Amino acid sequence: MYLYRPKKRKGNIAAITIFIIGAAYFTYTFLGMERNIASDSADAVKSNIDSALMSCYAIEGSYPYNIDYLEENYGVVIDRDKYSVEYEVQGSNIRPVVKVRTVGGISE
Hints:
It contains 2 helices and 3 strands. It is rod-shaped. A hairpin with a 3-residue loop joins strand 2 (97-102) and strand 3 (106-107). A 3-stranded antiparallel beta sheet has the order 1-2-3, with helices on one face. The chain is 54% helix and 13% strand. The protein is α+β, with helices and mostly antiparallel strands.
């Protein structure tokens, strides 16, 4: 026989459950932010390439035949370790198709 009634442990289980759910939520949110940052940086690279393309066409009257020309003459900087740029030329007066690929995804 007990002189007192033992306490039930339901409160502890609820607190542990809430803690685990909260930790999972914060981990998921953090990983989502990391993906968004990577996507935003790839979009920034593509935006810089697009601006350089417009400048080149406005100044020279034609689009360049390769991305190296934009890097040398228009200040485009591409971190080749993080991004792969697909540059498809269709003609000197037709805007090239540019795709910037990251390790984890694509930004077109």
